[in-house]
Amino acid sequence: MKAIFILKKLGQLILHILFWGGVLLFYTYFFGFDNDNFNYVLSFSLFLMPITIATTYVFIYKIIPKYLITKQYIRFGFYTFCSITISAYLIVVSVFYGLIYLSNFDYSDMAPISRSLLFVATAVYLVVIIASGYKLLKLNLKHTQETSKLENKILEAQLKLKEQELNYLKMQIHPHFLFNTLNTMYGFALKKANETPEMILKLSNLLDYLLYKIDKPFVLLTEDINHIKDYVELEKMRFNKTLNIDFTTRNISEDVKIAPMLLLPFIENSFKHGTLKNGMLKIVSTITCEENKIHFDIENTSTQEEELKNGIGLTNIKKRLDLLYKDNYSLKIDNKNGIFKVNLTLNTI
């Protein structure tokens, strides 16, 4: 780890040396224009180098990251003004250095470009601007990467929370479903009914579905329908002649998938909360596939105006719909004139 850090710092040092070497070449070429006195040009360029380096590093390591990036614009403006003022003074000194020490007060011996404060300042501040622009770009890229990492961590945390909540909701389905079904079997066992073995077999199929399929995010709709049919058959045995149920499926595609145990709680509640009228519980349910949508409708005879408000199963199912089909489903529940209706439309994912 320490070796990697040393290599990284060494690499940065080499890049800085190469950059300032390039700046020195630029200065010698720029100030040597129309002048054959190489010693003068090199000496003048070397004199400007510390001014340029100091001004550049003040901007890229102090003023920009500490004040501009943190949006302290007043301080940024103040320190920028101070830095430019000091560097401008030093640039004036450099011109006098060229005149006094390099030209012995002979104005004509000065390199033509080095005579102009404007050209000298332009050369220095051009380097400062280029280095500062690179620093800003680098800081922006770093900020973007850090923001992206933070967003990914937040998304991962949210995903884990949703997975935990979804698993909790799935765990709630098990006892709720088993409680209803075992009550039915208990009644049959008391009566020593001949249908009890068949009930046990269908319950076994449903338990297999619960244990091995419900952990999957999605299952085939055809598979889910088959287990709904098993559940309906169990309820037919329980209600015997007091049940009138019409369960219909239309245009069911073999490759359409759905979240497991999503529709069964609606079926359960139609039996659990449905009301016998004239000695008969009437339930009508249809499942239809159409243009990347699944339509589920169920209605049953009822007299309970608030039957859905506190049901564990349907409260559970609404939460699962929000987690799995957010903005991709519509659920309508109505209870009027003795008929309780549920209409669910899912966009297949």
From TrEMBL:
Residues 145-172 form a coiled coil. GO terms for molecular function: phosphorelay sensor kinase activity. The keyword GTP-binding does not apply. The keyword Signal does not apply. GO terms for cellular component: membrane. Residues 165-242 form the Signal transduction histidine kinase internal region domain. The chain crosses the membrane at residues 12-32, 38-64, 76-97, 117-137. Keywords: Coiled coil, Kinase, Membrane, Transferase, Transmembrane, Transmembrane helix. This is Histidine kinase.
